[in-house]
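Assemble and predict.
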Amino acid sequence: MEALVSLVIGVLTACGVYLTLRARTFPVVLGLTFLSYAVNLFLFTMGRLTIGQPPIIDKAAAGYADPLPQALVLTAIVISFAMTAFVIMLALKARAELGNDHVDGRDDA
Amino acid sequence: MTHLVIAPVLLPLLAGLLLLLLRPLTIGPRRILSLLAVVGQIGLAAALLPLVANGDIHTYALGDWAPPFGIVLVADRLAVWMLLITALLALFALLYGVRGFDTRGRHFHVLFQWQLFGLNGAFLTGDLFNLFVFFEILLLASYGLLLHGGGRLRTRAGLHFVVINLAGSTLFLFAAGTLYGMLGTLNIADLARQVATLPPEHLGPVQAAGLLLFGVFALKGALIPLHLWLPAAYANTSAPVAALFAIMTKVGAYSILRIDTLIFGAAAGPLAGMIASWVLPLALLTLVIGMLGVLAATALRQQIAYLVVASVGSLLIAFGLGSTAGIAAGLYYLPHATFAAGAFFLLADGVASRRGEFEDRLEPGALLSDRRVLGALFFAVAVLIAGLPPLSGFIGKWLTLRAAVEHAWMPWVLGVVLVTSLFAIIALARTGSLLFYRSEPPEDHRPTVRTESLGRELLPATGLLLLCMALVIWAGPVDDFTRATASQLLQPEHYIGAVLGAGVTP
């Protein structure tokens, strides 16, 4: 289980880094989205992988899942959601103003 | 627990919300409200100053959740010092902004207040994840401000700025997540306590997370080699925003200083000084590369942007010395560098607006109107930034050099600081003579019609220069305060005790 999750995070991060380094704004935005997915999963697993455990105090519970990473992930998701929306608008604005979707706004591209 | 600690965070947030609701109003009342909110922040910082000046550390537990479980705000000398510098800089940047620039796009005042909300929160928070949130707030506001007014170059520089900062935020989350996974806490004081008693098998991941954090803060602070985003972003944005952004790199420097002294300080066992050992060499390189950029710049605003990079280098050299005298010198240099860069950006806008099609490019152009006044101000700023006596730049550099004498890297620090000061003098003398002497009256002389008085235009830049003068006149008390701040930083057990309760041993 741990190996699978870490593999998923690693592949997501690698895809994110690769896409972020592309020269067009659309892959860059996708890359940033992949990176934020990877980091959200990563934060989630930082509370250790548990299945079927309650995050709040319960007399019948045998163990607990750490609730804090879940709260952190929620915050991180909201922030990355807003940032993605912003960067998409900015990429569209750059496409309109610079005439192409190259990240450096090259005229020959 | 005094509620005054949270007031500098709440005031700009509520002022921004109110400004958002008052959008139907004409610009006049909104400008007054925005200015009042900034004056209020100066007042709050000034009210907090005597509370912390005697060495007390005031904490504010949000929702009364006891640390380390809840989020805690911490006001110590360093935090209040940063609050005061930010509010003073913001006042003059805003005074320049209300001359008409704020009507060139929507929500300038809202974004400005929320930028201050993020900055104040970042200085006050005692929680690593909360620091991330405040970073995002200040960055999101800064994206809007950076692009305010629009334009081709501004959009391109803005895209780079946004993408690199989003990548930086992701790294911040990786670092915070790793620290939480290894140490089980995000409270900075508690992190410091946990790092001090770290079992050896957990050393590797914590070290990686600490260095990742350092990388993120170095990105915000524009430390070599993560400085490449800064010159384009600062050179292409508007003058009041560039002036306000003079504090943004200092947020990175502040964060480096905070985690370096608190989490990875002398008590951190095998990880002690882990970040400090990187700071000094990188800062020396930053100063050199920044000053080479200043020499090579082809436009005035680009030159000032590289001066900002160089000032981060000087600042972190002082912090990197690690001694009380070194950190104190850095904390004296910090307001000087911030105010001087802010004044320079405002002045450059005045110069560029008078040169017509030449704008701020460094080539012989048309004769400037009001060139005596502008020239005198330019001279004052150049003397300040180059670090010539008798102004505050000289005192800051002198304090740094004096602190460096006892350090093992003394020859490198002295050599680099003195040689780069010479570079700055050469570059600024060349710029000044180019702009103010080697210019000819244009053939069809049409004096530009200016609708406002020269005094009102130059008041903000002059105000920032007067603040630098105040740093000279009251250099004694300021130096005493920064020394006390530095010695407080080097005794993190007080901070940890204040946050987690006195009974806790670090």
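The longest helix of chain A spans residues 67-98.
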